[in-house]
Design goal:
The chain is mostly helical. The protein contains 10 helices and no strands.
Length: about 190
């Protein structure tokens, strides 16, 4: 009679996600994952199939866990204050955690995954980028309609700029660039609207 192992899948995803986040996909071994999660090899294979599938689930789980930041842009009382609050939180997350952003890290890592999973991870990253750019665009468009930002602002280009700022903040933090310089850069861009 086989005994069933019971564990909290969310806790396993949390633990595995941290390993991938710290080390990247390629540098993470199956043994690293087993040690961090405390589950057996058979439980990992029965639940997640393999390392590649577990990684894909971790990226999706990370997107779900960080979705609260988007609410700042959706619920902003004004365009500039919404942008300021979003980037305050983004900068804090990047500089207060040495891990950076899992989405940015994944986009920058050369990962060897099976073709179907590579497409799935690429889609998760692309969707995250597209969704965030649209949130910036919508907030800027609303601000333009309300007269909060200059009518000559190209909001499509500006939304893409904010998307790039969002991800470059993670790179700047990992490169140990001065936080005050990043804060000043973001404020300068917002001020210019």
């Amino acid at each position: 009679m086989t005994r069933s192992v019971v564990f909290n899948q969310e806790e396993i995803l949390d633990k595995a996600m941290l390993v991938f986040w710290k080390q990247g996909y390629e540098k993470t071994s199956l043994q690293d994952l087993l040690q961090a999660t405390g589950i057996s090899r058979s439980s990992l294979y029965n639940t997640f199939k393999d390392k590649a599938n577990l990684f894909t689930e971790c990226v999706a789980y990370y997107r779900q866990k960080t979705a609260f930041r988007k609410e700042i842009l959706l619920n902003a009382s004004s365009t500039k204050e919404g942008l300021r609050e979003y980037f305050r939180q983004r900068i804090s997350a990047a500089y207060d955690s040495p891990l950076g952003c899992l989405i940015t890290n994944t986009a920058m890592e050369d990962i060897s995954l099976p073709e179907d999973l590579e497409s799935e991870v690429d889609a998760l990253v692309q969707d995250q980028f597209t969704e965030l750019e649209k949130l910036f665009f919508d907030l800027l468009e609303k601000g333009k309609r309300k007269g909060e930002i200059t009518s000559s602002v190209d909001i499509k280009a500006q939304a893409f700029l904010f998307l790039n700022l969002n991800h470059s903040i993670n790179v700047m933090a990992k490169a140990d660039m001065a936080r005050s310089d990043v804060e000043h850069m973001v404020e300068s861009v917002i001020y210019s609207l």
